[in-house]
Amino acid sequence: MLGFLKKPIVVTAEINMNLVALTVMGLMSRLWGLSYPRAVVFDEVYYGQFVSLYMKRIFFVDDSGPPFGHMLLALGGYLGGFDGNFLWNRIGAEYNMNVPVWSLRLLPALAGTLCVPLAYQILVELQFSHCAALGAALLILLENSLITQSRFMLLESILIFFILLAVLSYLKFYSLQKHSSFSGSWWFWLLLTGVACSCAVGVKYMGLFTYMLLLAIAGLHFWHMIGDQSFSNISLICHFLARGLALIIIPMAMYLSFFYVHLTLLYRSGPHDQIMTSAFQASLEGGLARITQGQPLEVAYGSQITLRNVLGKPMQCWLHSHTNTYPIRYENGRGSSHQQQVTCYPFKDVNNWWIVKDPGMQQLVVSNPPRPVRHGHIVQLVHGITTRYLNTHDVAAPLSPHSQEVSCYIDYNISMPAQNLWRVEIVNRESDTDIWKTILSEVRFVHVNTSAVLKAVNFHFQLSGASLPEWGYRQLEVVGEKLSKGYHQSMVWNVEEHRYGKSQEQKEREVELHSPTQMDISKNLSFMAKFTELQWKILTLKNEDTEHKYSSSALDWITMDTNIAYWLHPTSGAQIHLLGNVVTWASANVAALVYLCLSLWYLLRRRRKIYDIPEDAWQLWVSAGGISVGGWAVNYLPFFLMEKTLFLYHYLPALTFQILLIPIVLQHLSDHLCRSLLLKNMFSALIVAWFSSVYFVYRTFSPVTYGEPSLSVSELKDLRWKDSWNILIRKQ
Length: 732
Fold this sequence. Notes:
Trefoil (Acidic Fibroblast Growth Factor, subunit A), alpha+beta, single chain
C-alpha cells in the first residue's frame, strides 16, 4: 500500500530560457536607477495629485478616463507607505523624503518589463519562429520611448501591458479551440482575455480600440464556426454563450467593480465635488454632507430652501436675489422693468434662500403637520431676505433678449401686475403624484402666465460671457425660457439646503435663515446612481483644451517629428526626453508599407488563381496582419477624429503593434522571397547589420532616456538629429 514511497517524487518543468533571459533584461532596462531623478517628471505632476487624493480618501473626477490606472499607481504609493502629503504643483519639483519614489514608479516599470516577454509569446503563438519572436521582444526591449514611458508614474506602459496580455490570451484560447474546447485551459485563456480587456479599458479609454479589435476577430472566428458542419447547433450556442460571458459580461462587471472600489475608497469631500449633483455631494463625508445631513426630506409649503442649478457647468450656482434693481436702460438702449435683480450666484450666500409659499395662504411657515408640495402644484417663491416674489413677464432679459426677464416683483403702480405663479414639474418623477424631495428631486419651474421655464444661462458662460455687467456684480443671468420643448439641464433645479420655516416675523426669519439646520435624517445614493453620474461626468466633462508646448498632431508621430522634454536637471545638462529609436520607427513604417503592398499583390494574384505562397502561409500572413496592422490602425487612426490636445505618447500602443509587424515581415521575406541559399545568407547578414544599428541608436540616446550621464552642449547638439526636436541646451 505504501509502495509509492519506494521511489522519489519527481516534478519536472519546462523553462523557456529565452523568456527568462528577456524578462531579466527587461527588468534591468526598466528598473535600473528607477528613483532617478528624484523630482517630478512631466505628467507625474498630473497623476501624483490623484495618488495623493487616494491616500487621503478624498473624492476626485478625472475626465481623462476610468479610475483603474489611477488606483494601480495609488497602490504603489500605498505599498511604499506614502501618506499623500506632497504638493504636486510643478514639473521638476524635488521630492521630499516623505515620497516613496521607487515604489510609486514600480508598477509602471514592471508592466513595461513584462511587455518584452509578452511580445515574444505573441509571435510564437502566431506560429512564427522563435528567432522572429526573439527579434520582436528585443525591439520592444531596446525601444527608447517605451523605456522612458515605463520608468515613471505614468499609465501608458500599464495600458500596453494589458493590451498585449489580452492579445496573447486570445491567441492561446484560439489555438485550443479545435482540440480542447471547454477544457480548463480553454476557459482560463478565454476568461483572461476578457479580464485583460476590461483592465485595459479601465486604465485608459484607448484600451477600447484593442478591445473592439479582439471582439471583431472573435466575431469573425465564430462566423467561420457557424459554417463548419462539424459543430452541432447546441455546441454553437454554448460557444456563443461562453464568448458572450467572457468577452462582454465579465468585462462589464469588472468595469463596474473598478468604480465600486474607487467610490468606496474616496468617501471624503474634496475640491471636485462642485461638478457633481447635490445628492452626490451629500453622500460624501464632510463638505455639503455636514450642511445637509438630516435635512427634512419633503419640501412643504413654508419650507426655506436654496435652489442649485443641476447643470453645474462651467460652475455651480444657486438661484439668488439682492436689493439692487435692473437699470432702467441697458447700454444698448433697451429698457428693463427696473425690478429687483434675480441671478445665479456661484457661492453660498444668505441671499440664496427662498420660501415656498402657497398662493392661497399668507403664512410663510410650515404647518403642523407639514403639507408637502407635489408634482404639478402651483407655488410662489418668496425671497427670504427681501420678501419679494419671484416673477417673470414679457420684458426682454438683459443679455438674452429672446428670453424673458426674471425679477423679484416690486409694485411701482404702473400697470405692471405681478406674475409670480410657478408650476413645479419634477423631471425625474416616478409618478404624477410624486412629492418634491430635498436633493433627490430635479424640478423645473414653469411660469403659469407665459409657460416660460426658469433657466440659468450659464452653460455657455465661457464662450459668450453670460455674466451680467458691473451693475449685476458679474453674476450669471437667469431668464424665463419661452421655447421649452424638452428640457436642458440649465432649466432644472434641485433643493440643496432645506429647513422648515418656523418664524412668521421677518426679523426672526432673517435670524433663522442665517442659522444652520440640525436634524437627523440621512440620504444615501445607491452605487449605480453614483456610478451613472460619475461616468457621465467623465464622458462629458471637458477641460478647456490649451495649446501645449509639446503637443503634436497625429501626422507628426509616424516620422517622429516631435519629442517631449520630460525633465531637465536644474544645474547640469542632464535631461530626459520621450524620443523613440529612430531605426525602429522607420523600420516599422517600412514593414507596414511592405505588408500592405505584398498583401495587395497577393490578393490580385489570387484573384487570377495564381498562388505565390502556400495556403497555410497565406492564412498565417493574414492572421498576423490582422493582429499587428489591425492593432496599429485601431490605436492610431482614431486620433485624427479627436478634438483634444495630443502628445507623442498617445502613439505608443499603436507603435507596439507596428513593432510586432517587423519580424513578421522579415520572416516572410526570408521564407518566401529569398529562394536561394545565397539570398538567405545575404538577407540574414542585412538583418544583423540592421539590428546592430537599432542597438547603436538605443545606446546613443540612452543618456536622454535615463537622464544620465549628463551631456555637454556639443553632445546635446549632436543628438538633435531632426530640426523639429527640442533638445534643451542651456545658454552659456
